Amino acid sequence: MPLPLETAPFSVCPMDKKDSRRWHDMGGLDGAPIDMAEHDYALWEKRVDALLVLSTTKGFFTVDGLRRVIEDLGPAYYEKMSYYERWVHSVNQNLIEAGAYSLGELGAKMAEVAARGETYGDCAGCHDD
Amino acid sequence: MMTERVRVKEMFPPGHVRTPFYLRGKTGEIERSLGPFGNPEQLAYGVSADELPMHRVRFTMAEIWGSDAENPRDTLDAEIYSHWLTPIKD
Amino acid sequence: MPHDHHDHDHDTPHSHTGMSPSGHPYRQDQDQPLTYWQNMEISIRELMIEKGIFTELEIMHAIDSMDSRSPADGAKVVARAWTDPEFNARLLADGSAASREMGFDIGAMRLIAVENTKTVHNVIVCTLCSCYPRNLLGLPPDWYKQRAYRSRVVKTPRAVLKEFGLTLPEDVTIRVHDSTADMRYIVIPARPQGTETLSEEALAALVSRDSMIGVALAVIPK
What we know:
The complex is a heterotrimer. By secondary structure, chain A is mostly helical. Chain A is built from 6 helices and no strands. A two-stranded parallel sheet of chain C has the order 1-4. A two-stranded parallel sheet of chain C has the order 2-3. Chain C has 2 domains: 36-67, no CATH class; 70-213, Nitrile hydratase alpha /Thiocyanate hydrolase gamma (Nitrile Hydratase, Chain A, Alpha-Beta Complex), CATH 3.90.330.
């Protein structure tokens, strides 16, 4: 079981030393037995990975920026979001901050993508063929 | 060979740092020195970063966990940027 | 991809259907309702391509590069280190240069190799996120990224290693390496006894992913 959030010694906004451990900084805390189950990555997750690799190699932001935004999500989202969901959120936030595109452009694009169909397969196709 | 002893500073700034909480205030020996590397505390915010030396510091489990250590002679190595370390003079 | 655990295929909701060639279930993907985050992935990708910042080909190449990396690459490095003392010395001095010397495209990754001996056992973790030598070994296992491993292995490495089926004598010093910054780590497991006549290729087959993270030993050949 994950550490219950209400008792976790983490804070998004630390106000003093005893409160200042942030949720991602978990070395030495108690934890559950290791869950050995493994999964292969889905295509959309591999694409998120590729977006990160290309964004950093082209100088839009660094892996430190990726981590900063994930850490700032706070502890609740560590439980709610999967690994690559946190990544895509952070890649987007960093690209917005770097001026690669605007929130208006993103909002319009996401509406257009959602209108293509029901599934990832429906919506991820080559839209401009 | 002379080993250089260092203590990790007890600082608690509210943002992106790469010094784990569990090592703050702990004393260890420099295992090797590396770098310089850009300061992640600046890189994370998209500002130009100072180039800093970085040290691999070796701590004993006894130093980190006290009587809770599983085996006091086991060790933990971590990479700590120079501005988080205070040299300890004998 | 080598199998590192004997208890891989325990019952998960995905078991027995849609297993990948590596024997792991796929995550839900193409046929499930589009999620908000999947939509964001599609949208970022298309915006970056429309703006001429990324190309479709670059994205495909990045995925192919990551897919082409696997623990088998690291196993070849270890087997070379076992059979060539001079290479072993170069690997310990500069893990990145030694990996490139063997032809592996590890990008800008800075690699430190740490060597297991009769008296020292090394184990790798990243307590702050999930730093892993991915440009040599491919993407990390799920457990490496999860809270249980990251929080516990720095305090009770012996108990954690026991969960992986590895019990070490008290007189073997465990060195835990927390990848807190710019370096990535690979463990060179100890070469098993009785392998003096094996070829480099046969030796590499004894080196699992988990042995290069330090939660297992090299396999002793039957």
